[in-house]
Design brief:
The complex is a heterodimer. By secondary structure, chain A is mainly α. Chain A has helices at about 1-20, 30-40, 40-75, 80-90, 95-105, 110-135, 140-145, 150-190, 195-200, 210-235. Chain A contains ten helices and no strands.
Chain lengths: ~250, ~260
């Protein structure tokens, strides 16, 4: 409700500014122009949305898997924590625009370089949240499991993994917005379709409203993906009773 | 390892495998000391236990009472093999710990928590549940098998934790202040419950508490530990028949004696 109210206020302000300030609609289209672009170009937008959605969806899943695996490796092996963790932090400082052309040369125009770029920008929050959850497991819990003759692997399976899995999903939720931006960057660097590609083409063609329509779809898709991850988290964490409607995006 | 060097000077302790050389259900600590190194550079090392000797016979309930921080938990962890002594010998039949907080796994149901040990030993979920099920009925937990720990009261959680401890099948139970987190009323109720449970399922029990009354009501023998570094300063044998009443004058007298030994005014 509040979100809808905020959107309406923002749209109203935007519409007023676009109409009254005399700003060129090639620079800033008014919301009604964006809305008509959404409708008029719907089949074009839909086709490209599917492409980008696939990239982002798979990319986030891949980031989830890679991030979780890295966190577990770092948690289990101290040398990896010392040697690899700083490198992971460093990897987050590498601008995507620098590596994107290289990935393009290596993997071509297909989905692979996009997935790699999205994974690269997304896995880190997953590593951090998962690692925190693994480190947060009560040491007394692990002692207890040891006196019950649990192996290290069993201790992981019964105590650490159930604590870490929802945390990994939280990390992925943080990563969703970045994933969408990553996908647009990846498509800018080289692609034949997708919403990023569409924007890249629409702007020089002075179809600014179409580019904004693509942005609207990207934002909507990010919200949807976030909601899906929240739902997955809830499905996974059945042991904490939570008040209804509080964790919705 | 300093522990082995120290033990080598003792004739009775074989260095390789000091555990398991006692008889079934027995615990034997001889001259055990444990010091934790300083946490920070320049900090002082903490001596938790100094020259503690104690024995528990099979089926005996031994209570350890002492002021906070006198190394009681360390003592139990030594018996359970979670720590090694710096000096002295710890010999015990396999022991299982029931930690201070219940440490139930929130994602498992009550019965799966209780049946954790059989599952870790390789039983299927169903087999493990089948082992736990009769105990649920016997120990007042019937109907709560499927409840998650978050849905149980404090007393219930302790019962489940105790069943988990029993189902490990180990002959020695180390209970670390099992009722410390409960309110006074539940505590009394759980005390009677535990006495009943141990009458049904006799085990050797080492039982840490700072509640002298609890110790005197439940134990065959009460060992009083000094402040840190902990060592045994008094021993009381309780021969009153069970079930015991905390208001029984003889129990009250024993409680007062233990309190005096602890240095209470």
């Amino acid at each position: 409700m509040i979100a809808a109210g905020i959107v309406i206020v923002l749209l109203g302000g935007w519409e007023a500014y676009a109409r009254l300030s005399g700003i060129d609609s090639f620079v800033l289209p008014a919301p009604d122009q964006v809305a008509s672009a959404l409708w008029d170009d719907r089949s074009l937008l839909w086709h490209n949305l599917l492409v980008t959605a696939e990239e982002v969806g798979l990319g986030v899943l891949l980031a989830l898997a890679v991030g979780f695996a890295l966190a577990v490796a770092i948690h289990f092996w101290r040398p990896i924590r010392r040697g690899v963790y700083p490198l992971l932090v460093g990897s987050q400082a590498v601008p995507i625009v620098i590596v994107a052309p290289l990935l393009l040369v290596w993997f071509g125009f297909g989905i692979t370089p996009k997935l790699l770029i999205i994974t690269l920008v997304c896995f880190f929050p997953v590593v951090v949240t998962t690692l925190d959850a693994l480190a947060g497991v009560d040491p007394d819990q692990l002692k207890l499991l040891r006196t019950l003759d649990a192996s290290r692997l069993q201790a992981f399976r019964f105590a650490e993994m159930p604590a870490a899995a929802p945390a990994a999903l939280s990390g992925a939720k943080i990563a969703v917005a970045v994933a969408v931006i990553g996908a647009v960057f990846a498509e800018y660097a080289g692609s034949s379709d997708g919403l990023g590609h569409l924007m890249l083409q629409a702007i020089p063609q002075l179809e600014t409203a179409r580019a904004y329509a693509a942005v609207v779809l990207l934002a909507a898709f990010a919200v949807l993906l976030f909601a899906a991850l929240t739902l997955a988290e809830r499905r996974l964490v059945t042991w904490i009773p939570r008040p209804e409607g509080r964790t919705r995006p | 390892m300093p522990a082995e060097g120290a033990m080598a000077t003792r004739l009775e302790a074989p260095v390789q495998e000091p555990r398991n050389v006692v008889g079934p259900g027995e615990v034997d600590l001889a001259g055990v000391s444990r010091t934790f190194p300083a946490r920070r550079r320049g900090g002082a090392a903490v001596a938790a236990l100094a020259d503690v000797s104690l024995r528990a016979r099979p089926g005996e309930i031994v209570a350890l009472v002492g002021p906070s921080g006198c190394g009681k938990t360390t003592l139990l962890e030594l018996v359970c093999g979670l720590q090694r002594p710096d000096a002295g010998a710890v010999r015990s039949d396999p022991a299982v710990l029931m930690p201070q907080r219940d440490q139930l796994l929130p994602w498992l149901s009550a019965i799966d928590n209780a049946a954790l040990a059989p599952r870790l030993a390789g039983a299927s979920r169903e087999q493990a549940r089948a082992r736990a099920h009769p105990l649920f009925a016997a120990f007042g937990l019937e109907g709560f098998e499927r409840a998650r720990p978050g849905e149980l009261s404090g007393g219930m959680r302790q019962r489940v934790a105790f069943l988990r401890t029993l189902l490990s099948g180990k002959p020695v139970l180390c209970l670390d202040e099992p009722f410390a987190s409960l309110d006074a009323l539940t505590r009394r109720e759980m005390r009677a419950w535990l006495a009943g449970a141990l009458a049904q399922q006799p085990r050797t029990v080492l039982f840490v508490t700072h509640d002298v009354e609890e110790a005197v009501v439940l134990a065959d023998r009460v060992l009083v530990l000094s402040p840190r570094p902990g060592h045994v300063i008094a021993e009381l044998t309780i021969e009153q028949p069970r079930p015991r009443d905390a208001a029984d004058p003889e129990i009250v007298a024993l409680r007062e004696r233990a309190l005096r030994d602890l240095g209470a005014p």
